[in-house]
Automatic annotation (TrEMBL):
Its main location: membrane. This is L-type lectin-domain-containing protein. GO terms for cellular component: plasma membrane. The lineage of its organism: Eukaryota, Viridiplantae, Streptophyta, Embryophyta, Tracheophyta. One of its GO terms (molecular function) is protein kinase activity. Residues 364-600 form the Protein kinase domain. One of its GO terms (biological process) is defense response to oomycetes.
Amino acid sequence: MAFFISTTQLPFQKVLPLIIIILLLFVLLPYAHSIHFNFPRFEQSSKIDYKNDSFAANGAIELTRNTLQENITQSTGRAIYSAPVHIWDAKTRILTDFNTQFSFIITGILNGKDYYGDGFTFFLSPNRFTIPPGAGGGNLGIYSDNNSTENQLVAIEFDTFRNTGWDPPSLPRHVGININSRVSLNATALKPTSGNILVYKGDALVSYSASTKDLSVFLSMDVNGTSSGFGENPDLSWNVDLRDVLPEWVDVGFSASTGEGVELHQILSWEFNSTLEIREAGTGEQPNNKDGKKTGLIAGMAVCGAVLSAGIGGLVLFGLKRKRYRRRNEEGVAFDVEMNDVFERGTGPKRFSYRELLLATRNFSEDGKLGEGGFGGVYRGFLGEMNLDVAVKRVSRGSKQGKKEYVSEVKTISRLRHRNLVQLLGWCHERGELLLIYEFMPNGSLDSHLFHKKRLLGWAARYKIATGLASALLYLHEEWEQCVVHRDIKSSNVMLDSNFNAKLGDFGLARLVDHEHGLQTTVVAGTMGYLAPECVTTGKASKESDVYSFGVVALEIACGRRPVERKAEASKVMMVEWVWELYGRGLLLDGCGREAREGI
C-alpha cells in the first residue's frame, strides 16, 4: 500500500482529517502473525526446548543419546521451537504459507548388528504435545503403538529402518510425508541407496502453499563430498488442507528414536519462515492467553496513540524529506532501467532467480563464505540443475559505489572471453539484492598461497601463473575490440583453477577506452602498494599503470612477500624500492623467496 500526498504545504486543520484516515487504515490493515527464525548453529540456551534425550552439543542438535559409554538403544528425543506457530485462523479460515530449511546428518552405528535405525522427523503438532508411550523404534519419537489417526500430526520422516506393516516394502530407507499416521502417504528413496551406507548428510527444504494446499519436500544430499543441490521440482509432495488436520497453533520441531538398531541424528542448522495475515482484529489468540483480548485492546490503543504522535511529527518533517526521497527514487528508477538494458542486451551470462541463489548458497551461509571485499561478500554455491559449483558475489545493500561496480563489472566482463579471465556465468537483480555468479576457482586466490601458506608453490607453478596473468593483460589491452584498463590488478584478484592456471577477476573498477585514447579520470582507484606513482599524483590510469601493477604481482610471486610490509626494517617496507636497491647492488636473487629460489 502506498500513500501519495500533494507537495503543497497544508494547514493543520486540513491535515487532521488525513491523519484520522491514516489511523483508520492502520486499524483496518491485516494483523500479521508472522514468525521467522534462523539457527546457523545451536546452543543449549537457544530458543529450543529439548525433550527426553535430546540436547545441544558442538553447535548441533543431538536428537538421541550419542555416546557409546551409555546405552543408546531405545532412545527418543525431541527438539521444539520455544514459541507456538499460528498456521491458520478459526474465525476467518485464513491459512498461512510457510517454508523451512535444515541441514542434517544421520550416522549409522552397527553396534554388533547388521542394521541400524530408526530415523528422525520434522513435524508440526498441537501445542504442548507430549511424547506418547511406546514412541521409540519405528515410531520415531512422535507416534504411539496404537497408531491412532487422531494424532493431529504432520511429519516429514527420514526413515532408515523398514518396519514390516507400515513402511514401504520397496523403500527400506526413505523420506516420507505422514499425515496423522506413521504410514507415509508419499515417499522417495533416501539417497544414496546402494551399498551399506552408514552416513547420510544433506539439506531439506519443506514448503507449504496456502493457495494450492501443496506440502512439498526438496532434498539436497551429499554424495562422496558433493552436494546434489535442490531441484526445480520437489522430490515428493502431497496435497493437504492443514486446517483439516492441525489446530490453529502448533509446535514445530524435530523428533527421533532408536530401537535395537542405533544411529546418531544431528540437526546442524534450521531456518523457518511463516506469515499469517488476519483481516479482523480480536482473532487468533495464543494458547492459554486468558487476557489476550484485554491485552490486545490496550496494545491497540497504545499503537494508535503512537501513530497519531508520529504522524503529527512526521508531517512537520515531511516537506524537508520529500525532496530528498524524490531524488533518491528517481536515481533508483534510472539505475534499474540502466541495469535491465545492459543485462538483457548481453549474450553470454544468464539471469538467475534470487530463489535459485538462495538455495545454491544455503541462504548465504557463513560457512560457505569465501571472502569479503570492499563492497560485499563472496559465497560458494552449487547449482544442482547445472551440476556446477559457483562463486556468488553479493554487493552490500546501500553501497552506491558497489552498485556502480556491479554495473561496470557486467558491462565489461560479460563481453570478454579468454582462458585467463574468470568467467561470469550470470547475474541477479531482485529484492534489492545485486548478485554476480562466477565459475568457482577451487584453489582460491594467489595471495592465499603466497602469504597464508595454503600450499607451497614451486618455481614452475609461479612462472606459469605469471605468464597466464601476462596473457590476460595482453588480451585486455591489445587483442580485444576495445582496450580494457583493469585498474585493480593485485594478487588477491588473481584466482587459480584446479590446475593452478591464473585467472584475473574483479572487474568492478575496469573501464573501456578506445585503443588510440588513454583513460582520463581524477579519482584514484586501486590498492595502495600496487598503484603506479603517476596514478597517485595525477589520478590517471592507463595500460601502463596496469603493467606496473602486474610488475608488482610478479615481484610478489618471485619474492614471496607483500608489496608493503609495515613491520619490516625501514629499507624493506616497500617491496619495489627494496628490490630496486638489491638490483643496483647486483644482489637481485637475494630478493627471491625460498620456495621460488629452489626451482630457478
